[in-house]
Specification:
Number of domains: 3
Order of helices and strands: HHEHHEEHEHEEEEHEEHEEEHH
Structural class: alpha+beta
Number of helices: 10
Helix content: 40-55%
CATH superfamily of the largest domain: Winged helix-like DNA-binding domain superfamily/Winged helix DNA-binding domain
Radius of gyration: 25 Å
Oligomer: single chain
CATH topology of the largest domain: Arc Repressor Mutant, subunit A
Strand content: 15-25%
Length: about 290
């Protein structure tokens, strides 16, 4: 199935869900469908957003975003809460889950990314005793909490406290794009902490995430070997639930190289074709020269 057929199938399924409880049939444009994808992705797992946050996430103009939000509320995809917050509905979840099941199989997936931020001042409004649960034994220096449906941690180090955000799963069209979305998600949680009066510094990825890249080569290797998983020192070839066969490299750099592999092979073939043409022309010229000499 190519990208055009897949998008048409997804638009049709979105239309059916929207029109299920509507007396007036509504056609979904590609632009509106794209907006539904982006906004639903941010709200799917219980997160609520205001219009300012959604503008930063989507990059939409104020006018376009308001148009999309009004339509998504009318179509039963979003619900507007108090103070300008929006939450996805059960209908919206079904739409996004269908999108993720079909389209997500062809996307790069990043899971279990930990991003840490140093707390440069005091803890301010963070109350460890009342709002956080100590992880492990009594002498553990790690506390776990929840913020906007994300697991967050406070870690006491020799230099003070670190605030850590746990990003569960993010999809993108390339490893770099998925990595960017995951970092952006973690940074949005860190900004929420800053807005509450806690001073934090620049974050860094403190635990390398799991990266899964769908690949027909990985599928062929699994089918040929008859194995469900192949492990190497560079990563894993795996077929997990709800996914096609994936390469799972150890680092972002290796992931990007694997994602670029088809293009790299095409460039090699183009150079080989050019070299073959050059050698053929030289042989033809040499043969012509020998013929004239005789």
């Amino acid at each position: 199935m190519n990208g055009t057929d897949l998008r048409k199938m997804l638009i049709d399924s979105t239309s059916k869900e929207i029109n299920r409880n509507s007396k007036k049939r509504k056609n979904i444009s590609i632009a509106y469908f794209t907006a539904i994808q982006i906004i639903s992705r941010e709200c799917r797992y219980g997160r609520t957003h205001n219009t300012r946050e959604l503008r930063q996430i989507t990059g939409f103009s104020k006018q376009r975003l308001n148009y999309c939000l009004v339509n998504m509320c009318e179509d039963g995809i979003l619900k507007r809460l108090d103070k300008g917050l929006y939450r996805i509905t059960e209908s919206g979840k079904r739409i996004y889950d269908q999108y993720e099941r079909l389209y997500g199989k062809q996307l790069v997936r990043i899971e279990n990314m930990h991003v840490s931020y140093p707390i440069t001042g005091d803890l301010g409004p963070i109350n460890i005793k009342s709002n956080w649960k100590r992880a492990g034994l009594r002498n553990s220096k790690v506390w776990i909490g929840k913020l906007k449906d994300h697991t967050v941690r406070l870690i006491k180090t020799h230099y003070g406290f670190e605030f850590q955000v746990y990003v569960t799963k993010v999809l993108g069209t390339s490893p770099n794009e998925a990595y960017f979305y995951a970092r952006n998600e973690a940074d949005s949680i860190a900004l929420e902490v800053e807005a509450r009066g806690v001073q934090i510094g620049n974050g860094w990825v403190s635990s390398e995430p799991e990266i899964a890249i769908p690949s027909p080569i990985a599928s062929a290797l699994l089918m040929t070997s008859g194995a469900s998983q192949i492990r190497t020192d560079k990563g894993i070839i795996n077929r997990s639930k709800g996914r096609c066969a994936d390469w799972e490299p150890r680092s972002l750099q290796q992931a990007q190289k694997m994602a670029d592999m088809p293009d790299a092979i095409d460039r090699i073939l183009e150079k080989l074709d050019a070299l073959f043409d050059l050698l053929s022309n030289k042989n033809t010229t040499a043969n012509n020269s020998d013929g004239h000499a005789n």
